Amino acid sequence: MAHPLLDNYDALLADLDGTVFSGHTPIPGAAEGLAGRKVMYVTNNASRSPQQVAEHLNSMGFPAEADNVVTSAMAACDLGKRYISEAGIESPVAYVIGHDSFKQLVADAGFRVTETADDQPHVVFHGHSPDNNWTRLSEGALAIQRGARYFASNLDTTLPSERGFLVGNGSMVAAVTSATGVTPESAGKPGPAMFEVAARRVGSTKPLAVGDRLDTDIAGGNAAGIDTLCTVTGVSTHTEIIDAPSSHRPTFIAGNLRDHLPGWSASVDEGTNRIRVTAGELGDVEVMAAEALAVAAPLAWKLIDDPEIPQITRAENIDFVGADAQAMEALGGWK
Length: 335
What we know:
This is HAD-IIA family hydrolase. One of its GO terms (molecular function) is phosphatase activity. It holds the Pfam family Hydrolase_like. This protein has 11 helices and 18 strands. By secondary structure, it is of the alpha/beta class. It has 3 domains: 4-44 and 190-254, Rossmann fold; 72-186, HAD superfamily/HAD-like (Rossmann fold), CATH 3.40.50.1000; 265-333, no CATH class. It has a 6-stranded parallel beta sheet with strand order 5-4-1-13-14-15, sandwiched between helices. A hairpin with a 2-residue loop joins strand 10 and strand 11 (164-167). Helix 5 (134-145) packs across helix 6 and helix 10 crosses helix 11. The radius of gyration is 22 Å and the shape is elongated.
């Protein structure tokens, strides 16, 4: 069965890495949560085409087609086209720091893709690719120094993998920005554009943005004005969720898209910085830890935001205690 809160929405706008899968391994509970629902996959990873993303999902048992995928590369192309139109540039030329699939999207958007800054490209597009090296970054930097407009698919500093967190597109962008002094316009999350496009494509009037990363998935959904669900399955940890600024705070928190343990509750001991968690239905420690977080986080945010208690600014200033052995075990599972 899926997490019951998913039934309150007509579509899910789901992140991929860390939410649906990790590398080539499905995230526990993702298949059950997504089954039978309208789903649009919204990903900042610009190294694969929508068709390749769909094929990767299919290989792990998730039914998907290219039309179910919105990538940050697609959104970057839209930004670039808008700039070219407003600037009145005919026969636009683009240099792409990124995968061949990104180059094809740029070509399909009406740009002539060049391999050299000497062609005076009007635009530089920058997306993640394992093949991005010093030569490609430097060629892009030269084009930007000569006046090309700079667009990044996303600014994620890390890229989740089965081995851990790899260098993300934002880290490579930082090198180009350091060399040129130019900060790119970013098309991906945490901007709202990808969520707005995805909701329109699936015909949703009440979508739920689902992701594991506060500064992209959750912040982007919040920016788009839709409810958000943070699954504690990838990047953002329990204490990071509590410490999140208001723009990064999710509407809901869950261990994954399937598991829910009803009956968990929390309260603040009056006049103290202590939040007391009481266990409800029991299950795996990871799921119990998420349930404890789901009931404790709103109370923690209220304490952190209260101007009358300025000494409480972070999770470390709050005393989280379990009212019973199971709640203590759950709190012990926080990271």
